[in-house]
Write a structure and sequence with these properties.
globular; seven-stranded antiparallel sheet; alpha+beta; 13 strands; 39% strand; 3 helices
Length: 164
């Protein structure tokens, strides 16, 4: 990512843009994210989910019967959000991009290992060429290369945009 561009219209004039490394650390360390997809009729769908930040991409998985999977078949445009619910502390981050399905055991296995390192046995996946596997559960895996990342600082308030 490039250096962040702070938008003085939306924050304290004394605010400084956080480094990309600090924003990326927030994305790596978050335990819960919110994924926004678009339904076929244009309405948004938002759902909490777990995921990993890996090699500059956000990665998530979904079962083929879930609403987010159905939506992705219509539109692959997504927003991923994480942060804190506090008004005066923390940083919220929004990743905008296009979800891309990941296939191939050689690409999926490192992602399954990343889930295990981050979430432990609660999210222990194996992988085949089509997606993750765990018994009869066979979710598809997606990555979101960021087209734009926005960091919202809260102490002081700020809005910084990062682009590739």
């Amino acid at each position: 990512m490039t250096t962040g561009q702070i938008d003085d219209r939306f924050g304290d004039p004394a605010a400084a843009a956080p480094s990309w490394e600090s924003v990326e650390a927030l994305l790596e360390q978050a335990e819960l994210y919110w994924l926004t997809t678009v339904r076929s009729d244009g309405r948004p769908h938002v759902t909490p989910l777990v995921g990993v930040w890996s090699d500059g991409y956000f990665a998530f998985c979904t079962g083929v019967g879930e609403q987010k999977h159905v939506n992705l078949q219509h539109s692959s445009l997504v927003a991923v959000t994480t942060g804190s619910n506090g008004w005066k502390s923390g940083t919220d981050v929004v990743v905008e991009g296009t979800a891309q399905r990941v296939k191939g055991r050689e690409r999926l296995r490192p992602l399954a290992e990343a889930w295990l390192r981050k979430y432990g046995d609660d999210w222990a996946w194996d992988a085949d060429d089509e997606g993750f596997t765990a018994g009869d559960n066979r979710p598809w895996v997606y990555v979101v290369p960021p087209a734009k990342v926005i960091a919202f600082g809260k102490a002081p308030h700020s809005q910084t945009t990062y682009r590739p």
